[in-house]
Design goal:
Blueprint lengths: L3 E11 L4 E12 L4 E5 L6 H8 L7 E6 L2 E2 L7 E5 L10 H5 L1 H5 L5 H13 L15 H14 L4 E5 L7 H18 L2 E6 L2 H7 L2 E6 L4 E7 L2 H4 L3 H5 L2 H17 L5
Parallel strand pairs: 3-8, 3-9, 6-7, 7-8
Antiparallel strand pairs: 1-2, 1-4, 4-5, 9-10
């Protein structure tokens, strides 16, 4: 039985003026410890599907199971990392990273020490009493990662977490997040518009078509890329071939212009 099962998901948005089908016939599985990416054009429903998987949004039709249980019963087992770090500006970094533990009533001396230790491991030792405005964008995203992982989620959802960062910081964080998830044995889903990022970080890539969103094609990454860090993968000979294959498929999804 797969770790995550998405079964026959269909979702329609209703307003007084319109009916929009965002997703149609989505079925996929993710294995424990796997890193997958959702890639596709704007409006193909990637973030909608992420919201459904995390049970923030109830689908019009279909089910999502995490370890064979409905995700609606697994909210504390799913972590979310977004484009914005959403650190509370009036709280210290320490207060921010402990917030999830506090809200889930799991904050104690042991979990607090583990979170602070992780903050140090991730290169943020000494910033515990600082406010978010005193840190760079990359440092704030690292703090947001610690806050997410402190609650020990079984599944991590990454919704374009690097897209607001400069390119150098983005590459460094890709490596850091990838290494951290490997060390903790976490399962992760990344939503991105960046083909290179998806290839460098993923075991598999789900390419979506739009209107309505459907899984168009699944790409399995070559073993030689999976073994490398994202930065190393970008420089491997196999990278360009995979990039071109995905680019070609994405081009085929674009509406023809006459």
């Amino acid at each position: 039985m797969s770790f995550l099962q998405v079964q026959d998901i269909h979702h329609t948005y209703f307003t007084k003026a319109s009916v929009t089908t965002a997703l149609s016939d989505i079925s996929l599985t993710v294995e424990e410890g796997e890193f997958v990416s959702f890639l596709g054009p704007s409006g193909c429903g990637k973030t909608t599907l992420l919201s459904i998987i995390s049970s923030l949004l109830k689908p019009t039709q279909g089910t999502v199971l995490l370890e064979n249980k409905p995700v609606s019963t697994s909210k504390n087992e799913i972590g979310y990392m977004l484009q914005q770090d959403y650190l509370f500006p009036w709280k210290t970094i320490e207060e921010n990273i402990l917030l999830g533990l506090k809200l889930s009533k799991r904050l104690n001396e042991k979990t607090k020490l583990a979170a602070l230790s992780f903050l140090s491991q991730i290169g943020l030792k000494g910033v515990e009493k600082q406010l978010p405005k005193q840190l760079s964008g990359g440092m704030r995203q690292r703090a947001a990662l610690v806050r997410t992982l402190a609650t020990e989620p079984k599944l991590l959802m990454l919704d374009e977490p690097f897209s607001a960062l400069d390119y150098q910081t983005k590459l460094k964080l890709e490596d850091l997040v990838s290494r951290t998830l490997d060390e903790f044995g976490k399962t992760a889903i990344l939503v991105t518009h960046d083909i290179g990022e998806a290839i460098a970080m993923s075991d598999r890539i789900f390419l979506f078509s739009s209107k309505p969103g459907k899984v168009h094609k699944i790409f399995e990454m070559p073993e030689e890329l999976k073994r490398l860090s994202p930065f190393e993968a970008r420089n491997h000979a196999a990278f360009q071939g995979v990039f071109q294959a995905i680019w070609k498929e994405m081009e085929s999804l674009e509406p023809r212009k006459y």
